[in-house]
Every structure is written in structure tokens, then in C-alpha cells.
Amino acid sequence: MAYMTFRSRTLSRLGLVTLSLACTALAQPGPYRPDADARKDVAAAQARARASHKVVMVIFGANWCEDCRVLHNNLDSAALHDYVQSHFEVVSVDVGQFDKNLDVVKSAGADLKKGIPVAAFLSSDGALIGTTNNGELEPSRKYGAQQVLRFLREVVDNHKITTPQ
Predict the structure, then answer these.
(1) Do residues 115 and 98 lie in contact, with contact meaning Cβ atoms separated by under 8 Å?
(2) Which of 31, 63, 140, 159 could be stapled to 72 by a disulfide with Cβ–Cβ 3.0 to 4.6 Å?
């Protein structure tokens, strides 16, 4: 078919552009490193927290998860960045398709039954403060930076897990 209409050529080009953009989006690194040694990363964060008297926030999620990416974007936002840096050692643990690093999930006292992201918070001495096993962070795309900040302040100030409001 040597003959292509203007419309079919345009649609064909549009399809290629869309495919190219989709591939670029998939190639973008996310907060969860598939090749990371999760146990080693959590242990290193705990050692840093012990020395700096910070809370360890272990976030279990995946790069394909929109809520996981939104949570990380909020944590990195101008409104939260300084607070997070001064109070937390953050570790992102990739759970793949709910089939990866499940031993780390379990050892942190977390479970994935209510979806991801799930966070486990550990005091600087390694004691479990709490987890978001009840799905508190799962709808992260609904939360703005100020809601997440209030949530994090409850963890730091009161050692309490709440739903971001």
C-alpha cells in the first residue's frame, strides 16, 4: 500500500509519538530501585537514624503504582523536603508485583493486603512506631503536601499513625 492518505499518515505519526512518550515514561527511574538490596538499605538507614536520632520511614511500593509515586513526589516537594530531611531516614523498598522483598515487608511488621504504598516507621533505636497497614497511605494521590506533613508530624511528635487529613 504505497498510497497513504494524509489522515492515515497523521494517525500513524501520532501513534509513534504516543508510543515514544510511553516508552520514555516507562524508562524514567522511579523511587523504587528494582536492583536494590532492601535488607542492606534498611539496615543502613537504621544505622544513620541511630546516629542522627531520626525516625526511619520504610516505604514499600512499586514504580508502576501511581499512589507510590505521588507519595514520593510529596515527600520531595518544597513544602515537605526540609521537614523530611531533618526528621526521617527514608528507604524505598520495591515490592514488584507483590512478589518481591516480602521477607523485608514482614520483618518490618508491614503487610500489603490493603494496597501500596505501605510505610513502616521505626524509632532511632529500631523499635517499631507503627505501620500504615490499614491503607492510610494507599490513596496518596488524594493527599496534598500539607496533609502528608500533618501525618508525618503525628508520627514524629506523638508516635501515632493516623490517616492524612
Answers:
(1) no
(2) 31
Distance from C-alpha of 79 to C-alpha of 75, rounded to nearest angstrom: 8
**All structural domains of the chain:** 38-158 (3.40.30.10)
> Whose grid coordinates read 507519595?
71
| Distance between CA atoms of residues 118 and 124, nearest Å | 19
Quickly count: other Cβ atoms within 10 Å of residue 159's Cβ: 14
Q: Transcribe the chain into DSSP letters.
A: -----HHHHHHHHHHHHHHHHHHHHHHS--SS-TT--HHHHHHHHHHHHHHHT-EEEEEEE-TT-HHHHHHHHHHHSTTTHHHHHHHEEEEEEE-TTTTSSHHHHHHTT---TT-S-EEEEE-TTS-EEEE-TTSSSTTGGG--HHHHHHHHHHHHHH-------
